[in-house]
Amino acid sequence: MSIYITKLVKISRYLPLTFRTLCSSKPHEFEPLEADDSKMPPIPQYEIKKDESIDQKKARLLYQSRKRGMLENCLLLSTFAAKYLKDMTVEETEQYDKLINLPPNDWDIYYWATGHKPVPSEFDNKIMKLLKEHVSNKDKEQRYQQPDLHDN
Fold it and tell me: Residue ranges per domain, the chain?
């Protein structure tokens, strides 16, 4: 039996961080990564779409919530959008649009939502509070994959 555990430990080095921390008995404490913005390529400023209907905006935000480029945010934001986006008001939808599109670094969104960094005042609103509540996962839902698109 111990040989299997040893093999699992060796294999776990190559698994995503989220899986390793779920399987770990150690406390889940880590230091946020600090990016050196001077070495980052310039990212074009996001422009808010003015002539977009609310249904188009929600469809776009649902897609953008699923395609983040990092697994952690894909899982958090896709499950959040599947649960809350359809019932958001126009104002809440605009807040969510700004939250997921204005920050130049997706890790910032992750650190704000998980409470590892303070939320800037421009994003500290009802949607961020709802996202933090969703991330806390009080109902202990399993979020290891994105929800199906046809369920939304």
Answer: 55-151
